[in-house]
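Incident log, structure service

09:12 report received: a user says their structure output differs between two submissions of the same chain.
09:20 pulled the input from the user's history:
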Amino acid sequence: MDDDQDSPVAAVPESALRSLEEEIQETTDGRQPSLEEEAGCVGWTMFDTAQSNDGTVTVLFPRESLEAVTNQSLLRIHSNDGRRYLAAIVRGPFMEPDGLRADMPLVVTATVRGRGRILLPNYHGRAQVELLGEEVEGGTLVPPRRRPLPNSPVFLLERPEMARVLGSQGEIVLGLADGQEELEVRVPLKGREGKGVFPRHTGVLGTTGGGKSTTIASLIAQLQRQGAAVVLIDTEGEYTAIHEPTDDPHMVRALERRGLRPAGVPGTHLYHLVGRSTANPAHPERRPFSLRFSALSPYAVMEVLDLTDAQQERFLKAYDATKLLMERLGIFPSDDVDRERLLRLDEFEAGYPKMTLAYLYDVVKAIVAQLADGPPPRLETPLFAQQPAAVAEAVRAVAPPGHLMSWRALMGRLGRLKRLGVFDSPNAQPLDYSEMLRPGRVSIIDVSDTDSPQVNNLVIAELLRGLQRQQDRNYRLAQRRGETPTPVILFIEEAHEFLSRERIARMPVLFQQVARLARRGRKRWLGLVFVTQLPQHLPDEVLGLVNNWVLHKVNDAAVVARLRRSIGGIDDALWGRLPNLAPGQAILSFTSLGRPLLAAIDPAPCKLRMTD
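09:34 re-ran on a clean worker, output below:
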């Protein structure tokens, strides 16, 4: 053996070590994270690949970090170039074996034959995170102009900071963020922040059994507790027992897990149309109500009755004759105050003051009798019956067009509407909107026994107008006092029945009432909540009014695609989960939240009458 082979290994020259250190410094930009900087680090950013996308970064998490990191977690990335970014996990974390492909035969064999106990390689997590912004001085977020550098440490935000970044603050608790056992999703009701949430209107969508009713009941209970005035149009009678605590065993256990207790909603009043029953006749605050014909725009009535063009012309002629007759008989206007009120009347918004359906029906009967050259009709209004000459003169003054059959068709439609017995009934008072809009008042309008979309539309039409006028008065009064008016939230169940694409095409005036209320409500603390299991029937005009969304399970791919076009800000991963959400889960997108979240909605503490 040579002497060279027997000689000891020579030490590495100092010059070589210095050269190696200089090369490391050059390749790392001369900067390495200190141990203090990496304390609390849960992962590191990865190099980009051919599958990388703008706006997202891949992060790797060691095995020991996976217990703390979940989907939707918020992260802070300390980029090695000195920049800091906030990000949210949108896909993953997914588990991968260290240094091996998950589908390698060796890994598969070790899993199957070793039953996960022998030869199992160590593993790590991989997640895609969406950059929310770059943090600049003062903690302000600005749009990111660059991507974080590879191998940059990643830190998990603590719960309080996570809530602050997400904007999850306010009086109303919607539920717990998915994967975050202690992070409550909150939205504001009061103050400057609250004015930008519920008054900007909300949509609660989802298939039957997805959890919409629980969401609505939970919202009502909290809104009442915070002093809002709540009105709900209940088409199935499902909410007519919310004044009682829930006795459903599944709901009780869910409440216990959240540290909550069953409780009824105080201040609840139940209204039903006169002559119709209610789903809960034992309610302690039950009362019938009648509709006021004078509250309805004549154009809205024509739409609800689905009159032909010829019938509409005759309806308006009869309406004018009735107004003239009321004036001549001193019914309205009767003084200067009434005349001043008449100058401000907009018949596209409301009807003629003090006019009843019986008045209009009597006038149409008189016109039919005149055209038929028959005997004077038997009028039901006592004052009209006592003044047949005045009735005949008012009819002649408006020169009603001929064609007796068309007039008889109109009289038949008005007669059917009159026989419903829901207008101007002596056996029931109209709705008292000043009472309904008191703080902490919950008014359930039970229309489950009408069996008529036509009647429901009439109820909604009057309700919209009455609530808007009363809240206008409340708003002006609060302004004079330097106060904030009581927030008012109107829930419209089965919104697709009232606001479907086909119905809006036939009833544009009614939709304009909704749109007008939606626009004015934002300034006057009046918010609408549209609830439906058939969002495909809601037109774009309605979706355009909504700024807050609670999306329960939606199966139909075409509906999901349409919602994606209408609702911005929800990432692809959340949209992908929408068809598979469990009951009680929902995607929450509110104007006050920093980004949409998947959440487990809080259980309802009050009793729901489940329908078949």
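09:41 both user submissions now match this output. Likely a transient worker issue. Closing.
09:42 reviewer note: The radius of gyration is 34 Å. The mean pLDDT is 89.
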